[in-house]
Design brief:
By secondary structure, this protein is an alpha+beta fold. The protein is built from 1 helix and 3 strands.
Length: about 45
């Protein structure tokens, strides 16, 4: 998870929200790509 976010940041994306664990156990982070699109990076729902 964190490695994927780091790779996206290295490729030019901007961090919107750090990884955090949701109440249902899923870890979610948000980035904005160089074109301005909001992208959710997440683990599978357990």
């Amino acid at each position: 998870m964190d490695e994927t976010v780091e790779l996206a940041l290295f490729a030019g994306s901007a961090l919107v929200e750090y990884s955090k664990t949701k109440p249902w156990g899923q870890v979610v982070a948000y980035i904005r790509d160089p074109d301005g699109f909001l992208i959710e990076i997440c683990t599978p729902v357990i």
